[in-house]
Amino acid sequence: MLNIMLDINDVSNEDLSLFSEYNIIINDKDFLSNKKINVDILVVDFKPSCLSFIMKMKLIKDINKSIKIIVIIDLLEESLIRLLYDNGIDYILVRPIDYKTLLVIINRISYKFINHNLEFNKHDKIIKILNRLGMPANLKGYQYVKQALLLCLKDNDYYLHTTSKLYPHLAKTFNTKESCIEKAIRNAIELSWCRGDVDEQDKIFGYTIDRNKGRPTNGEFFAQLINYLSLS
Q1: Which stretches of 39-177 are DSSP H helices?
Q2: For a FRET experiment, which of 88, 99, 182, 191 has its CA 20 to 30 Å from that of 152?
Q3: How many CB atoms lie within 10 A of CB 145?
Q4: Among 150, 142, 144, 151, which residue's Cα sits nearest to residue 125?
């Protein structure tokens, strides 16, 4: 749940009811005295002392890099709007406040926060699993495998069509040939299969791979890892 600070003067209980799915903090006067500002979104009235206000917002951004700031202004002044945006303000609303519009903005920010965290978690899981499988991180193939798994988690079609879709996408991303992508991935899988923990390999691949035939193919490797990552 996102923490939202409302530093505005005229919010009513009826308005607040729109934000019931969020943790709302109202007009906390000690907000800037904290060494760490632990809110995700700040909705704040623009104060007449322009320079002082902007410096205060910059300080907040310096303390909490990920915070999003929504400023409420009284008049639609182009020079003020440009100044606020140039100094890191994320959104600007003009009075009278339409709280339904504000909710739309907050929901949009919330969606971005959630997706950012999901992407980070996926990336972290992939790194951990490749390390457990013994894949050397200094190989080009390691980077290709990591990116390929992120793509496949977003769209299963990538590992269902490795030759026609996955390799061309990776080749474009890394500015190389499709054949180089395929070979580097094959080499990375080969090394991890030879040097990796057998118990860990069995845990992930189970009986889907015949050890008498050697390492899994690139397609088998991606298919089983995607299945494992999706369930874990």
Answers
A1: 50-63, 78-86, 99-132, 140-154, 157-160, 167-174
A2: 191
A3: 25
A4: 150
